[in-house]
Design goal:
The protein has 402 residues and is of the alpha+beta class. The chain has helices spanning 4-9, 28-32, 34-44, 63-70, 101-110, 115-118, 122-137, 144-149, 152-161, 168-179, 184-207, 213-219, 229-243, 245-260, 262-270, 275-285, 317-320, 354-371, and strands spanning 48-51, 57-60, 76-77, 141-143, 290-295, 299-301, 304-306, 311-315, 375-377, 386-387, 393-394, 398-401. The model has no long low-confidence stretch (mean pLDDT 94). Bound molecules: protoporphyrin IX containing FE. Protoporphyrin IX containing FE (HEM) is lined by residues 78, 94-95, 106, 157, 238-239, 242-243, 246-247, 250, 289, 291, 343-345, 349, 351-353, 356-357.
């Protein structure tokens, strides 16, 4: 998959046998089926290789090498999370920070994401899940991404952070606009609008606190001071990026698996108390984020010579799909003894929202299977496209049931 021009254009420190063409935004291998495409790539490429695509960067497929990268922030920094790198990219607290600064913010935020502190959200998650499922139940069909998967996370998120729920439809269209935009200009346009909403909400909460995350952030002691307006904006915007499209894609891959595997669907329908295991197993099998890092100083990884400033993309889906880590890795099994995956990342930046995400997914699978009879992919409708990038996903998923 490499032509001579690619090899000529690689920097001098990259050895020729490490060069493989791979465009993580739009690779032909991924278009038919994202995870099959990644496994195909694994068969063709070294565990750590250089692609000339997107300005040229390293791609790490090998799970051991991924864990080395993710637990070594001194060598692999989070300060630049864009590929190709964008020197003007705004800082995203806490994701684009390295230690020791990162830990200060992470410690501040951590306690609000722990299971005991989000327990009160369970009744709201139940309510919104049932609400959106009831809207499609009697129709016998739906476009799952549009009708369900993009809706539930937005409302839960709005309640958690403190956005007024009557604005739900406005928010959903802004968020959809941003995540589904096809050009950088479009995405920037929606990002600015979301920033505007965030700015208005922070201003309102500074005047009058409510029982929500934003009010707690405003009142929190950060060392001997409070968080600045800029810091609140940065945290708020990162939560938008981290907590919405991720849950949408997890639900979409999970439900697509059930639609394709009636046996698994029936097994879980008969055992609703196992929906937490199902959520974890489906995330393992269909992990979808890709994590960028920047090489801090010249270093060797798995025999590959890297230079300071090089960008590295960790394809974390490969851990869940590794047969040595998860026997029969492509099989989805409720009774797996142990699940080894990096779906929520690994090391210092491991997902803060994972307990909330699991609550949303577990609730959703249980309620969906209780309400919707045997469902399948609607083959009469166009098949959804795979979207690449740092959060990979499905553009649409048509389902039918009778
Ligand atoms: C299935 C859903 C989700 C998946 C698969 C997921 C995945 C991830 C991954 C892989 C990272 C690590 C990023 C890195 O190392 O650069 C991460 C970080 C993060 N996630 Fe999630 N996430 C999900 C849902 C959420 C939700 C619902 C929230 C909050 C509302 C959230 C908040 C965060 C935050 C704040 C970070 C940054 C942590 C840090 O830098 O210390 N995530 N997530």
């Amino acid at each position: 998959m490499t032509d001579k021009t690619d090899a000529k254009n690689a920097p001098a420190h990259v050895s020729q046998d490490r060069i493989v063409s791979f465009d993580f935004y739009n690779d032909p291998r991924l278009q038919d089926d994202l995870h099959d495409g990644l496994m195909k790539l694994r068969d063709e490429a070294p565990g750590v290789f250089w692609t000339p695509a997107n300005g040229g960067h390293w791609v790490v497929l090998d799970p051991d090498a991924i864990s080395t990268v993710l637990r070594s922030p001194k060598d692999f920094s989070s300060r630049q999370l864009q590929i190709p790198p964008r020197p003007d990219a705004p800082r995203m607290i806490p994701e684009s920070l390295d230690p020791p600064e990162h830990l200060l913010y992470r410690r501040l935020m951590m306690s609000w994401f722990e299971p005991g502190r989000i327990k009160h959200l369970q009744s709201r998650v139940d309510y919104w899940t049932k609400h959106f499922i009831s809207k499609v139940k009697d129709r016998g069909e739906c476009e799952f991404v549009e009708d369900i998967a993009s809706r539930i996370p937005v409302t839960v998120f709005m309640e958690f952070v403190g956005f007024p729920l009557e604005r739900h439809e406005d928010f959903r269209s802004l968020i959809d606009g941003m995540f589904r935009s096809t050009s950088p200009e479009d995405s920037q346009h929606y990002a600015m609008k979301i920033m505007g909403e965030l700015q208005a909400l922070i201003t309102a909460r500074m005047e009058k606190r409510e029982d929500d995350l934003l009010s707690r952030l405003i009142d929190a002691d950060f060392g001997d001071r409070k968080l600045s307006f800029e810091e609140l904006m940065s945290i708020g915007f990162l939560l938008f990026l981290a907590g919405l499209d991720t849950v949408t894609n997890a639900m979409s891959f999970g439900i697509r698996h059930m639609a394709r595997h009636p046996g698994f669907q029936a097994e879980l329908r008969a055992n609703p108390d196992r929906s937490a295991e199902a959520a974890e197993e489906l995330l393992r099998r269909y992990t979808f984020p890709n994590l960028p890092r920047q090489v801090a100083g010249d270093i060797e990884l798995d025999g590959a010579r890297m230079k300071a400033g090089d960008m590295v993309l960790c394809v974390i889906a490969m851990a869940g799909l590794d047969d040595a880590l998860n026997p029969d890795a492509t099989e989805v099994k409720l009774d797996r003894e142990k699940r080894n995956h990096f779906a929520f990342g690994y090391g210092g930046h491991t997902c803060l929202g994972r307990h909330l995400a699991k609550m949303e997914l577990e609730t959703f699978y249980r309620e969906w299977l209780a309400a919707i009879p045997d469902f399948r992919i609607d083959e009469t409708k166009p098949r959804g496209q795979v979207r690449g990038g740092s959060v990979m996903g499905l553009s649409s998923l048509h389902l039918a049931w009778s």
